[in-house]
Amino acid sequence: MATKSKIGVLGASGYTGSELVRMLLRHPRAEIVLLTAERSAGKAMRDVFPQFSPFDLPTLLAIEGLDWGKLGLDVAFCALPHATTQKVLKDLLAQAPGTKVIDLSADFRLHDTAAYAKWYGHEHHATELQKEAVYGLTEIHRREIRHARLVANPGCYTTCAELPLIPLIKAKAIDLDEIVVDAKSGMTGAGRAAKEAMLFSEVSEGFHAYGVGHHRHMAELDQEFSLAAGRDVVVTFTPHLVPMNRGIYSTIYVRGKRGRTPEDLHAILLKFYMKESFVHVLPFGEVPQSRHVRGSNITFIGVTKDRIEGRAIIMSTLDNLVKGASGQAIQNMNLVMGYAETLGLEQVALFP
Amino acid sequence: MATKSKIGVLGASGYTGSELVRMLLRHPRAEIVLLTAERSAGKAMRDVFPQFSPFDLPTLLAIEGLDWGKLGLDVAFCALPHATTQKVLKDLLAQAPGTKVIDLSADFRLHDTAAYAKWYGHEHHATELQKEAVYGLTEIHRREIRHARLVANPGCYTTCAELPLIPLIKAKAIDLDEIVVDAKSGMTGAGRAAKEAMLFSEVSEGFHAYGVGHHRHMAELDQEFSLAAGRDVVVTFTPHLVPMNRGIYSTIYVRGKRGRTPEDLHAILLKFYMKESFVHVLPFGEVPQSRHVRGSNITFIGVTKDRIEGRAIIMSTLDNLVKGASGQAIQNMNLVMGYAETLGLEQVALFP
Amino acid sequence: MATKSKIGVLGASGYTGSELVRMLLRHPRAEIVLLTAERSAGKAMRDVFPQFSPFDLPTLLAIEGLDWGKLGLDVAFCALPHATTQKVLKDLLAQAPGTKVIDLSADFRLHDTAAYAKWYGHEHHATELQKEAVYGLTEIHRREIRHARLVANPGCYTTCAELPLIPLIKAKAIDLDEIVVDAKSGMTGAGRAAKEAMLFSEVSEGFHAYGVGHHRHMAELDQEFSLAAGRDVVVTFTPHLVPMNRGIYSTIYVRGKRGRTPEDLHAILLKFYMKESFVHVLPFGEVPQSRHVRGSNITFIGVTKDRIEGRAIIMSTLDNLVKGASGQAIQNMNLVMGYAETLGLEQVALFP
Amino acid sequence: MATKSKIGVLGASGYTGSELVRMLLRHPRAEIVLLTAERSAGKAMRDVFPQFSPFDLPTLLAIEGLDWGKLGLDVAFCALPHATTQKVLKDLLAQAPGTKVIDLSADFRLHDTAAYAKWYGHEHHATELQKEAVYGLTEIHRREIRHARLVANPGCYTTCAELPLIPLIKAKAIDLDEIVVDAKSGMTGAGRAAKEAMLFSEVSEGFHAYGVGHHRHMAELDQEFSLAAGRDVVVTFTPHLVPMNRGIYSTIYVRGKRGRTPEDLHAILLKFYMKESFVHVLPFGEVPQSRHVRGSNITFIGVTKDRIEGRAIIMSTLDNLVKGASGQAIQNMNLVMGYAETLGLEQVALFP
Fold this sequence. Notes:
The structure is a homotetramer.
Chain A: E1 5-10, H1 15-24, E2 30-36, H2 45-48, E3 60-61, H3 68-71, E4 75-78, H4 84-95, E5 100-103, H5 113-120, H6 127-132, E6 134-135, H7 138-146, E7 150-152, H8 156-170, E8 180-185, H9 200-203, E9 208-209, H10 217-229, E10 236-241, E11 248-255, H11 262-272, E12 279-281, E13 299-305, E14 311-318, H12 322-337
Parallel strand pairs in A: 1-2, 1-4, 2-3, 4-5, 5-7, 6-7, 8-10, 12-13
Antiparallel strand pairs in A: 8-11, 9-10, 11-14, 13-14
Helix pairs in contact in A: 1-12, 7-12, 8-10
């Protein structure tokens, strides 16, 4: 039997943390040896997530006082709040330079320190690491990820918008100045912090936009779209909240360039993702539903034509906790560790 | 005490029918004397809608065999399926020419018989009535509605998109060739017919678009926007389904024309609706939520700026069964009958 | 036009507070002159409950510093947290002895100070008022309520269990030692405080019991059932949480005494509530649904036979925020002020 | 690599069918070679369940015309409607006597043909097979299941009530004449047939009982409880519908016999299930939640004391589509085929 990697999950009491544990428990090459949670330190994982009651898992620890060198983790998944992450990872990688890190926070996603300071309101505290970090949109940056020590796992909204748009931008197939991304997210995207606005009674049976004109994921979109285009690209992006637990759904309005029809755009995407296990392009004209990827690491993409000549409507959907966070993180771990990319990620969607 | 109008509700076993009954039961000038339902003829209203169990209501009848002249209805609300409506209303108005009709179907909304035939797949069977019908978007066509005998109550999606856009189009304040309406609806918009796709387990915990590029409400949008603009206007419109009962939410992407800023657009809407009871424009930058108009006849409109210079994002929301259907129908009845426009429609939103 | 009562709502930023405002805004004899909210003092009501944006309402104030004598309220609704209430009401009634108080907290529901201390963990701080307070289960204690200055509005679970059971206990029709009340509540019953356990993602798509064997509403049940029976009665009571906003549903298992059949029990309830506007007993064998009383002040009760000879299953349901809290509070205000009991409470249920 | 069993799923277009496919796709010893669906015959599985779009699966066929002998299935899962099943399985086992059958319908669960006729309203059409069939409550009848050719997979409600009660009945630890099972189910338990009562708008945001006093699963409970007790046992059982997709939750009221305390009952269950992979007894006093077993094959059981001396409240919960149907069916297949019992069933619960 193959040896297992020693895995730590930092920030195991949040939803991306529990989702990592859910999948790592069944990953044939993973052994969870460390779980941390600041406010719940000393508790059992079953006390914060009762679904793990039947399983043996390490007790939750506080990060303060851990000896990273002694722990000798092969892989650390970091699902800590923004800013905290920078400090923790600086320490960790100083003490245990051989540990591979998959960071699920936003802290290392932006290559440009000025952009970081602008969107996050303060200077970056680990600029050396920021330079080293590789942006973990697996299907796009697979080659660099394989050799990375620090992978900055992309945001859920951004993964959902970038997977359909980057191939089209690279192919110079769409007008870059007229892209509208109308995005909708389930409630787990808001995390597990106790906020009035996230109470069941505040969010069920209704729908609304938020962060209109100024959501932080825009910075990631700008970076990756501009990189793909070789020029600055700024898109319109509006996030909304849907009364459901899981799922991101992006409805994307584009205009084909130089005579590209919606069918052409579909063909580009179909070809681009033909060999991918986790991006599935539906037949032209079919519309995806978020529920059909729930619990799986798969993204569904559909392309249809608008009734306005030359315009296409593209829909993409993924599970924000899986392909939009912990699933892609494990996919990146598999690359970094040289495992088969799909290992531990084979779960078929849970519908209904 | 003022006399009451004799009211009939045709098609009382569907959601817009029950919603009419809910509000008419408390309308001080309304007396429900007729309820029809084809498949449930002979049943009590409480058998199809148990919430009416404590109230006295007429037994459900089939339309076949009714003597409209003898019934002498003052007002008939018609919530029948499309096409059926044309035949029924031709008979009704022939036998009882003095009855006022508020039709909630799509049958009389399009003035252009060619457009009707194109979108509905067959010739119109009551073209004389089609010419007579007045489009019942109350705040826009109030004057004609007052004198109408047959009011074609608008669709829910269309009301939600037209209320914010028509004033801007009339004011020549936005670019007419770049309007995107990303619309989301609760499940009652799909009606009460037993369809697999509308089962709880098929629609809860997920999100999806439908009718992409070819939804029938587009025809109404085209008619009203073109009328307001004095030229042909074709917008991009994508409907989606949200796992909630009630609510339409439109996120509308526009570009100001001739230097109009998002703030200017807001000012136009604020002024246009200043004296309206049922359209409420939020302060600039505020984002509405569908839950805050649930059960009420009020539309909330919010205007924000996009981060792209010159573009605005407008959000409007209403309860599809109230302002989007039965509430606006009663508002139109009030106009037609010379009652105070808000009569029977004062209910404050039910949140949470 | 009749004069209006000057009304204050203490604790207007919670769900029972907003529900009071929703109904009082349309109550023909009510004028809201005071709204309080400690943490939101200084804000507009629309800032904490955007559904009130179109309406003129007083700014939210802190209680500290109010001059109750000067305010001269006719009625104060008190929707404050437990314990706080005792202090506030002692002050209020000392300064403004003519103000009528409808208290929605649990503070004055228990007549027995020892029972209070046992269930709430500390001595009562306003024992004089506790003696004066009248338990506000309207249909049962109507006579005393009419003359009360301080009405202790019952809990939602207790109202739902007491309305069907008290008439049967009074009629000595059921075995008192074998009553099981399996109760289910929507999420608004848990209030608006930001708690992790009440987040959308924690409570949607699942079901669970809580407070098993030790829920505080038991004390109220004990008091009222024992009062009705003339001896101590202790029932089994288990509350559960349902992923819905509104509604309490009680499934009650009883055994008929001295040959009473389920049909007999039904007849007793039917007769007891024959003339009541807000308690509706369904035909024998019919099963109520919580959704059919949503937003209304009505309780539905159904009685069926168990397949075990002599046993009946009784189901009752109400909207926890209306008949289970704010609606019954207004019903009690109507009694106290000598208004028609149904005033401002005529709203028909909002279904779907 | 071990050889794979050739598997057929009869009735693949329903929820238990799709759930079988979901798990069998990842079962290391299963190869799906046949999928049937009458009304959808000729379609691809992705047309009826889009979540399977990325996977290769056989085209849906009609049963009529299949040559069971030629197909040579190792295992047939039968998820057909009641009554149809009898005819199909008689043919199948006549033509292919070596095929093992796991039947998910109710057709072979009752050993007593008179009981069958009483509860289902007609004579049984395959009485020979009825005698042969083994009741597939795995943890209780494991030994017989290993040698069975035809396993009658239990109902979801019954599995949830039988797992906690049978060990207590066998141990003679509870009063047999006073058992109340108050059961709650998610909507997938109602199947995928298009019925008005199961529409999203009819069932969301509400709660209700149904089948009160006469639900067919009672017959199964009677059979298994009486078998365990060695005498007739009839329990009170009331099913309810919860607005969620998955999950059964049973709140069970019992009285300890001969001095058995709630703690004793807990100890009995803990011991009984100590070595089981799919039944997890929580520490005494802990209350399970249905969401923590969602998507997994595990049952959670909690035991608490009632405040009434000698009475206990037991709560059990499972995923109705997994342990309540398709998961237990695969567990039974594993036994019948001699595979490890947990094969293909290791999925950790998907929460949130």
